[in-house]
Design brief:
The protein is of the alpha/beta class and 269 residues long. It is 22% helix and 35% strand. The strands form 3 sheets. The chain has a 7-stranded antiparallel sheet with strand order 4-3-7-1-2-6-5. The protein starts with a strand and ends in an 8-residue tail after the last strand.
């Protein structure tokens, strides 16, 4: 069962005028979280917004071996995320979790190729740590609009993750979209790759199709609007294909996901 706690803000590291990392003292939630799971949060002292918002668990915070809490990577895009961006140490955040279906890490000789767009980086900090513990080689394809939208690079490199960076303005790494080097590498070096992806849905659809074309499995973490995170409101439904040619049907991504086999999602088109 998920925990519903009032978590104290430990720190709020503002990475840019849009992005920040919010650290919460929520050890009960953090101890049970797995890579790809999420929490539902909102400020505890305000009725606005009425509903909580979903965020992938970014980091598990520790004091030596003791788990003390978790962090969230967030981007300020509206009133709800602005309140989180403005939070200060000592503030209280309602935190419900961990929720949802996690990634399934792979073992050697398979390699893990993670594909992140924007705040889609969030679930990969935990996944990268898990992969290192299993001895699995990993690579991160990470894309943003510009160089200032790419974060935590030194941290991933210290874990031994190979970085492939892209920016839409060409200010760092490959000039273009993150799927372009992925497509190239799947065609030439991807024989043992398992692809993991999180980001905007058009990017996820493209990644899933590229992996399927290359004959490689993919796991995608979808970013659907969630009203409750517990399956009660049906706001986060997503179409998945039935077996043996059966018609697609809808499932709740907060329960059946947010991580799905990329080949089973009906991406349309």
């Amino acid at each position: 069962m998920p925990h519903d706690v009032e978590a104290i803000v430990v720190s709020n590291r503002r990475l840019s005028p849009e992005y920040h990392v919010l650290a919460l003292a929520a050890p009960d939630v953090a101890r049970e979280a797995a890579p790809g799971q999420f929490v539902m949060v909102k400020p505890a002292t305000s009725s606005h917004p009425l509903l909580r918002r979903p965020f992938s668990v970014f980091e598990i915070l520790r004091d030596h071996a003791r788990v003390t809490g978790l962090s969230l990577l967030s981007k300020r895009v509206g009133p709800s995320t602005a309140r989180l961006y403005e939070a200060e140490p000592g503030d209280t955040i309602r935190c419900l979790g961990p929720l949802g279906r996690a990634f399934t890490p792979v073992d050697p000789p398979a390699e893990a190729w993670m594909v992140a767009g924007g705040v889609g980086l969030a679930p990969f900090a935990m996944l990268a740590e898990t992969l290192r513990q299993r001895g699995t080689r990993s690579r991160l394809y990470y894309g943003g609009r510009r160089a200032s939208d790419l974060f935590h690079l030194d941290w991933f490199e210290q874990l031994g993750v190979e970085l492939v960076l892209t920016t839409e303005d060409g200010s760092r790494g490959v000039h273009g979209r993150v799927t372009e080097p992925l497509e190239r590498d799947l065609g030439s070096r991807g024989a043992d790759a398992v692809v993991y992806a999180c980001g905007p849905e058009p990017m996820l659809a493209s990644v899933a199709r590229l992996a399927q074309t290359a004959g490689r499995p993919s796991q995608v973490s979808v970013e659907r609007v969630m009203g409750c995170g517990l399956g009660g409101c049906y706001s986060c439904v997503i179409p998945v294909r039935g077996e043996a040619g059966a018609a697609a049907h809808f499932v709740r991504s907060c329960l059946s996901g947010p991580v799905f086999d990329g080949a089973t999602v009906d991406w349309g088109g």
